[in-house]
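Summary of Year 1 activities. Much of the first year was spent building the evaluation harness for sequence design. The harness presents a backbone, in tokenized form, and records the residue chosen at every position. We chose the following record to illustrate the format because it has been used consistently in internal testing since the harness was completed.
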């Protein structure tokens, strides 16, 4: 049957994005929003990467399971992803935990987040399910993973990163044979198994899984009846298939989307303040590792209607300027100097202020004479005149959330506590 197929496999697939993550390691950035809803790259949210990959891969049925502090995420999805049309056999479902099959209010785990919506999934009659994490930054063509899944005869195909072996201790690691069939799945091993023929590297799970829909529904129903299960794909579903069926690893290098400017496969878990800052600041490089300007694989998001960025004043020490920086629409750089910084929509940077290594979320106001270095500033913060951050580590740590690498996360609540 598959040999006679005349259209892409993605047309018969549904992408199911698990977007309920708490993201506690991002500290105050996730006090009011789920990790997938955290801003990234000047315009987007983190979840836009998984959703854009699905759309660009040709998948036209998408479900997003939400849970923790979901309002910001749901509002973004309603504004930015409302263009799917049922008359074109397209659908986009936002799926909060809603007690559909149980009296438990919350999703008990990643597998339960799919199980509780089995009736919705089955109504669509899709042949394949692509299960995705909604909190990673990467570009990937899921059609290629679907093709491998069908060609290999696998019951589950697991997306995997090749990482240095001893860096895989924080991941679920696939132990594979020479044909990439998974023979064992080890969660956060102290001594990760190497790849056959490349023992210094290991295959770490990306939290991306492809199933035939019918088989997945059977698995989920069996798991739901198992009283000792944690209802989790990584801890329960995948190990069960590895032991009782055929699980195959799909290497990210085989389906990573790269422009002519991207030298290697790019995947980031921006789950800490340091990693979040670094991934955003990396975009200011002359040739960044992640090309967000690649029009052949666009990152779709909510396209705000905003005026252009504006730079004003040309006096000594009061010159609106930006070097090696990204500045979004509706920003006004009024006599402020930016270096290696990334500004989201609607930022106001006032005269004589200087920003270096700054990730500034939407609608922030930078007061005059402020000097800010290596900071992440949450949405809507008003930075008072003359504030200095990035010169005195002890003072910074007493006022703000200072990371191990010296990055200061600044929120309005922290500013309100200052005695200036």
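For this record, the design step produced the sequence shown next.
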């Amino acid at each position: 049957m598959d040999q006679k197929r005349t259209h892409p496999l993605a047309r018969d697939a549904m992408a199911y994005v698990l977007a309920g993550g708490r993201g506690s390691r991002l500290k105050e950035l996730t006090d009011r929003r789920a990790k997938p809803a955290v801003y990234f790259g000047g315009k987007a949210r983190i979840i836009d990467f998984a959703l854009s990959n699905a759309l660009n891969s040709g998948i036209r049925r998408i479900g997003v399971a939400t849970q923790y502090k979901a309002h910001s995420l749901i509002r973004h999805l309603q504004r930015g992803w409302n263009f799917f049309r049922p008359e074109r056999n397209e659908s986009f479902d936002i799926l909060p935990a809603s007690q559909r099959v149980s009296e438990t209010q919350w999703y008990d785990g990643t597998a339960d987040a799919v199980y509780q919506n089995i009736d919705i999934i089955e109504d669509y009659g899709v042949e394949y399910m692509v299960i995705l994490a909604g909190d990673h930054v990467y570009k990937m063509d899921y059609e290629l993973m679907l093709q491998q899944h069908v060609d290999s005869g696998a019951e589950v195909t697991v997306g995997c990163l090749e990482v240095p072996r001893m860096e895989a201790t924080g991941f679920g690691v696939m132990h594979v044979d020479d044909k990439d069939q998974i023979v064992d799945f080890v969660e956060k091993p102290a001594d990760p198994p190497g790849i056959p023929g490349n023992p210094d590297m290991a295959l770490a799970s990306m939290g991306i899984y492809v199933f035939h829909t019918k088989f997945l529904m059977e698995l989920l129903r069996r798991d739901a009846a198992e009283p000792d299960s944690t209802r989790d794909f990584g801890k329960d579903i995948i190990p069960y298939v590895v032991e009782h069926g055929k699980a195959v690893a799909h290497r990210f290098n085989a389906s990573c989307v790269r422009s002519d400017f991207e030298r290697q496969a790019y995947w980031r878990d921006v789950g800490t303040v340091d990693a979040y800052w670094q991934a955003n600041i990396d975009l200011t490089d002359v040739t960044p590792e992640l090309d967000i300007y690649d029009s052949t694989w666009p990152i779709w998001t909510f396209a705000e209607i905003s005026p252009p960025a504006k730079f004003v004043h040309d006096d000594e020490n009061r010159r609106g300027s930006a070097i090696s920086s990204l500045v979004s629409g509706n920003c006004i750089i009024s006599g402020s100097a930016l270096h290696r910084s990334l500004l989201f929509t609607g930022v106001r940077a006032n005269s004589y202020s200087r920003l270096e290594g700054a990730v500034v979320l939407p609608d922030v106001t930078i007061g005059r004479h402020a000097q800010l270095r290596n900071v992440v500033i949450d949405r809507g913060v008003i930075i008072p005149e003359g504030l200095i951050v990035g010169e005195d580590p002890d003072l910074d740590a007493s006022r703000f959330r200072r990371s191990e690498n010296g990055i200061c996360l600044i929120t309005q609540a922290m500013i309100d506590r200052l005695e200036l």
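DSSP finds ten helices and 29 strands in the chain. Quantitative recovery figures across the full test set are reported in Table 2.
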